[in-house]
UniProtKB/TrEMBL annotation:
This is NADP-dependent oxidoreductase domain-containing protein. InterPro entries: AKR2_Oxidoreductase (IPR053135), NAD(P)_OxRdtase_dom_sf (IPR036812), NADP_OxRdtase_dom (IPR023210). Gene3D superfamilies: NADP-dependent oxidoreductase domain (3.20.20.100). The lineage of its organism: Bacteria, Thermotogati, Deinococcota, Deinococci, Deinococcales. Pfam families: Aldo_ket_red. Residues 49-307 form the NADP-dependent oxidoreductase domain. SUPFAM superfamilies: NAD(P)-linked oxidoreductase.
Length: 327
């Protein structure tokens, strides 16, 4: 790995709108979002590229400028980088992640879709791949789903590499998953390389069902970190598809959506946007219709102290998420 950035870095600057687009559902034919298969009329590479570009075009036209990918999102980085180049959108701000390798070979029913390795060899291999796919360095570069168990936050070699990238202008950090997100975030806040923490960004799951990382994210925000929130719609469970994909929208969410005059997903995202520590909130829309619904979250307000009572215990939430089928 080299610390060369292959071009200027566009800084991550959370501005209006605070809604970005994540490409987890757009870069590969299989994902765990409820109804993902129904959202993909053409699962060929060309078909999915066209669909990804349609969503990206619609988002850009609506003012969205932040776009999030990862090495494990199939061809998401490739689709995103080619779109920026073709459209000439030099004001697009890109984020990506390393640490998972996509292994499904474009098969929606593959037994394994991604493999996690948080070692130096993976970082050294994936950083040049990200540069090549995106056409330059991302503004945010995150450890993908860091956990205390992976040991990545105690790996001097990896942290030194990330410090090199941070010194070159890339904002490095971590994304988190699982019931112990808060513990991981607080450990990350204490990382030091030569007395300085090279990490200054976190992407975490927070939604009306799992709010367990909220206090830790507030701490990160207070420390000057960029805070990006993913899975605000809980992989489709807080949308019109409902908790099981059969339209069973929780009554408090349905009531809030009706009061605001938006769809349940927009109400759920508006609840995330109401959090003062959330710099950027990701839409995981799989098609332009869902994106349009998600964007409505920007024109409504939900009081941060008057959220629908939907929260479950973190371990319950993550167990239910683990049971969602790839489709």
């Amino acid at each position: 790995m080299t610390s060369s950035l292959s071009g200027p870095v566009r800084p991550f600057d959370p501005a209006s709108p605070r809604l970005g687009v994540g490409l987890a559902a757009l870069g590969r034919p299989g994902y765990i979002n409820l109804g993902h298969a129904r959202d993909l009329p053409d699962r060929s590479v060309a078909g999915m590229r066209a669909q990804a570009w349609a969503v990206l075009d619609a988002a850009y036209a609506a003012g969205v400028r932040y776009f999030d990918a990862a090495r494990s999102y199939g061809r998401a980085e490739e689709f995103l980088g080619a779109w920026v180049q073709a459209r000439g959108h030099r004001d697009a701000v890109l984020g990506s992640k390393w640490g998972y390798t996509y292994v499904a070979d474009w098969q929606p029913d593959a037994p394994v879709h991604e493999v996690k390795t948080h070692d130096q060899a993976t970082l050294d291999r994936q950083w040049p791949q990200t540069l090549a796919a995106l056409g330059g360095p991302p503004a945010l570069y995150l450890i993908h789903s860091a956990t205390l168990e992976s040991g990545v936050l105690d790996n001097p070699a990896v942290l030194s590499r990330l410090a090199e990238l941070a010194a070159g202008g890339v904002r490095v950090g971590l994304s988190t998953s699982g019931p112990a997100q808060a513990d991981t975030i607080r450990r990350a806040l204490d990382v030091r390389v030569d007395g300085v923490n090279p990490l200054s960004a976190v992407q975490a799951t927070w939604n009306l069902l799992d709010r367990s990382a909220g206090a830790a994210l507030a701490d990160a925000h207070a420390a000057g970190w960029a805070v990006v929130v993913k899975e605000g719609v809980a992989n489709g469970r807080l949308s019109a598809r409902g908790l099981s994909g059969r339209g069973d929208v929780p009554a408090p969410l349905a009531a809030l959506a009706a009061e605001l005059g938006v769809t349940p997903d927009a109400a759920a995202l508006a609840a995330v946007l109401a959090q003062p520590w959330a710099d950027m909130v990701l839409s995981g829309a799989g098609n332009t219709d869902h994106l349009t619904q998600n964007l409505a979250a920007l024109r409504v307000q939900v009081p941060a102290d008057a959220l629908p009572e939907l929260a479950v215990e973190a371990r319950t939430y993550w167990q239910q998420r683990a049971e969602l089928p790839w489709n």
